[in-house]
Each structure stands twice: as structure tokens, then as C-alpha cells.
Design goal:
The chain is an alpha/beta fold and 366 residues long. It is built from 12 helices and 16 strands. The protein has an 11-stranded mixed β-sheet, with helices on both faces. A 5-stranded parallel β-sheet has the order 14-13-15-12-16, with helices on both faces. Strand 9 and strand 10 form a beta hairpin. Helix 2 packs across helix 7. The structure holds threonylcarbamoyladenylate and magnesium ion (MG). The site of magnesium ion has 3 residues, from loops. Belongs to the SUA5 family. Its EC number is 2.7.7.87. It catalyses: L-threonine + hydrogencarbonate + ATP = L-threonylcarbamoyladenylate + diphosphate + H2O.
């Protein structure tokens, strides 16, 4: 049985002082973590499915709840720099700079694993991924549990990461001990992951903290091949989570790459071509009117990448609810701000990317 606690509702109806009430609820949730149970909690990126990161038996429950392969390493979430000492003994200079700049916040650093961290939490690796979230409820929960909390995104394996409590309940009701149902995720995409164990930091997973922001702090940053390309069979992913087909909607999905207006023109052409299916287009706000009469989802304005980021996972879930059998979306041309969105779109589409046609040159690559 899962205990679902609607934080907002509880705080206003049962106690006028949100803080005191939430603290009591969070103490109960922290006790569940301490006794080896599972608690879903909100963070600023996506909801996390948490358990005591230093307890191998508790960590295994996360894999079971998600239906996730057991070799996929997890992020350990900490609430203070003191707690960092329990997960690693080695903090390279670049890692220190990145922590100083971006923690607490949506940045995960891969570091050398400390002896207390069980291999169950790292998927057998000698390195460990660590993040200090900024969400007040997440921070408080970790602090009260007084242990690093291992937490992957709180979705069933293969589903988009959950950005609302409703997504979590849909996926995990009956599979975890507690769900702290709170606000919609402010960022809506998983954290930026950077490996700082080598001589030059490597971006393993793009997120809302951009490559430019990272470079501004540490100078050179390499980009793992898995960020922009599908890895070939047998090729090893530096970020093991990257090797699984993530976020795939039920319908066929294709992405159109190029510049506007060719992209819009080509998306329309595909909608027309697949009209016997149930086609759905993910369209930037600026171009919605061109798709009048079609089933579309408003991605948000191109001028606001953070809005497009924030809506993406909801849209992918909506495509399934609509039983869309064909989905078309743009791949964004602007590289830095859209690196994370393009990365998640590419995975969702299984890297099925077609070039935009330009009117008069209607050669289509399929
Ligand atoms: O925003 C987030 O990061 C969310 C919230 C809950 O904090 N969590 C999250 O966790 O997205 P998860 O498990 O879905 O993704 C963890 C990513 C995976 O891509 C995994 O391969 C990578 O981090 N990772 C974890 N440990 C690693 C390690 N030791 N070396 C390389 N990559 C690692
Ligand atoms: Mg995930």
C-alpha cells in the first residue's frame, strides 16, 4: 500500500502553519527512508524515487519499483557539504568550482566513490553520481533522514520522467511506500550530469545548466558522444543510463532538423502523409496557427527554451493518452540552449531524424 500525501492540501486544511505541518510529515517520510523504505519526493528537476543510498537492500527496492535494470547507477542526493564526505573522499578542483557555483541546484557530479557507498547504488561502478537539490522539501527530507538518498527519476522504466505528482501516482501507486505529492517541477527535465573524475570534465547528460554555463566556470568541458548521437551496438556509454531507450512514446515519432520555415513546412507534409494514422505535432507557439485543424501540442515559444523544456515530458505523456500513432516534432537549430531538449527529443524518437525540405527542393530522406 502506498501512502499518498498531498502536501499542499494537508498544510492548508489541517494546519495553518505550513512549515510545522510539513516538517511533521517530512519526519515521518524520513523515518520510512531510515527504516529501508521508499519515498517519492519532489525536486526542482523531476520527482525522485528515493531510498537510503547507503543501504544496499533499500537501494534494490528502487530498481524493483521502477522495473529498471539493476546495472543502472543512481544519483545520491545530499543536503549539505558535510554529507558529501559520506559518499566520496576525493573532490577535484573542477568539481569544487562547479559545486560552489551550481549547488544546491540541477547539477549532478560524477566523483570517485567512497567506501560507504554500496556497489548496488552505483551499478557496480567505482564512481558515484552526487547532487544537492535546491527544492526545499527535498533538502529537508534528506536532512531529516540524515543519509544520502539514492533517487532516480520516479517513473516506471521507459516512461518519461515525472514532472507532476499525477505522473508519479500514475506510474508508482502501489509500488512504493510513500509519495509526497507536491508542486509541479520548476525545471521539468533531469539534471545536467558532469563527470569530474578525469583530467577534463565531461558532460554526460545535458540539462538546464548549459554547456556554456559550465565552461564559464571551469574552462574546457568535453561532450560525451552519447549526448548527441545514438551509440552503436556494443559501444560503451560513459553514462550507463544513456544506453537504454528512454522516454519513448507509444506511437512512431520523427524529428525534423533544419531551419524555419522549412522545418514547419516539412512537419506539415508529414502530418498530411500520415493523416490516416492519428498524427500529433509538437509545435512551437509561434507556428501554432499554421497547424490549424490538426491535433497539436503547444511546445512553448522558441524564445523561451526553459518553457519548452518544462512542457516536454507532459507532452510525451499526453501523446500516449491521445493514442497518437504518429508524432512529429522539430529538432531545434540553436545548439546551447536546446542541447538538453534536443537530446531528450532524439531519444524519444529513437534518433529518427529527417532533414527539412526547402520549398522547391522536396527531396525527402526517410
Ligand atoms: O534531475 C535528476 O537528476 C533526477 C532527480 C530525481 O534528481 N534524477 C535522475 O536520476 O534523473 P536517473 O537515475 O534517472 O539518472 C541518473 C543519470 C543516468 O543517466 C546515469 O547513467 C547517470 O546519471 N549516472 C549515475 N551514476 C553514474 C556514474 N557513476 N557514472 C556515470 N553516470 C552515472
Ligand atoms: Mg530517469
Amino acid at each position: 500500500m502506498t501512502r499518498i500525501i498531498y502536501m499542499e492540501e494537508q498544510a492548508t486544511t489541517l494546519d495553518k502553519d505550513n512549515k510545522i505541518y510539513e516538517e511533521k510529515i517530512l519526519q515521518e517520510a524520513a523515518a520510512v527512508i531510515q527504516s529501508g523504505g521508499t519515498v517519492v519526493f519532489p525536486t526542482e528537476t523531476v520527482y525522485g524515487l528515493g531510498a537510503n543510498g547507503l543501504d544496499p537492500v533499500a537501494v534494490k527496492k528502487i530498481y524493483q519499483a521502477k522495473g529498471r535494470p539493476g546495472d543502472n547507477p543512481m544519483i545520491l542526493h545530499i543536503s549539505s557539504m558535510d554529507m558529501l564526505e559520506r559518499v566520496t573522499n576525493v573532490i577535484p578542483e573542477v568539481a569544487r568550482k562547479l559545486m560552489d557555483t551550481f549547488w544546491p541546484g540541477p547539477l549532478t557530479l560524477v566523483l570517485k566513490k567512497g567506501p560507504q557507498v554500496p556497489l548496488e547504488a552505483t551499478g557496480g561502478l567505482e564512481t558515484v553520481a552526487v547532487r544537492m537539490p535546491s527544492h526545499a522539501m527535498a533538502k529537508k527530507l534528506i536532512q531529516l533522514a540524515n543519509t544520502p538518498i539514492a533517487a532516480p527519476s520516479a517513473n516506471l522504466s521507459g516512461k518519461p520522467s515525472p514532472t507532476t505528482a499525477a505522473h508519479v501516482v500514475e506510474d508508482l501507486d502501489g509500488r512504493v511506500d510513500v509519495i509526497l505529492a507536491a508542486d509541479q517541477a520548476a525545471i521539468g527535465l533531469e539534471s545536467t550530469v558532469v563527470d569530474t573524475t578525469g583530467p577534463i570534465p565531461v558532460l554526460l547528460r545535458p540539462g538546464s545548466i548549459t554547456l556554456t554555463q559550465l565552461k564559464n566556470v571551469v574552462g574546457q568541458v568535453l561532450v560525451d558522444k552519447g549526448v548527441t548521437q545514438r551509440l552503436a551496438e556494443g559501444e560503451t556509454a560513459r553514462s550507463p543510463g544513456m544506453k537504454y531507450r528512454h522516454y519513448a512514446p507509444d506511437g512512431d515519432m520523427i524529428l525534423v532538423k533544419g531551419t524555419i520555415p522549412g522545418v514547419i513546412y516539412t512537419m506539415m507534409d508529414w502530418m498530411e502523409k500520415r493523416k490516416e494514422d492519428h498524427p500529433v505535432a509538437l509545435v512551437p507557439t509561434e507556428y501554432l496557427s499554421e497547424f490549424a485543424g490538426w491535433d497539436v501540442l503547444d511546445m512553448g515559444p522558441i524564445a523561451k527554451p526553459e518553457v519548452i523544456m518544462n512542457r516536454l515530458y507532459q507532452h510525451l505523456r499526453t501523446c500516449n493518452q491521445k493514442k497518437a500513432t504518429f508524432i512529429v516534432a522539430p529538432l531545434f537549430a540553436e545548439e546551447d540552449d536546446f542541447l538538453a531538449v534536443n537530446n531528450r527529443l532524439s531519444k524519444a524518437a529513437g534518433y529518427h531524424i529527417v532533414p527539412a525540405m526547402t520549398p522547391g527542393n522536396e527531396n525527402r530522406e526517410e
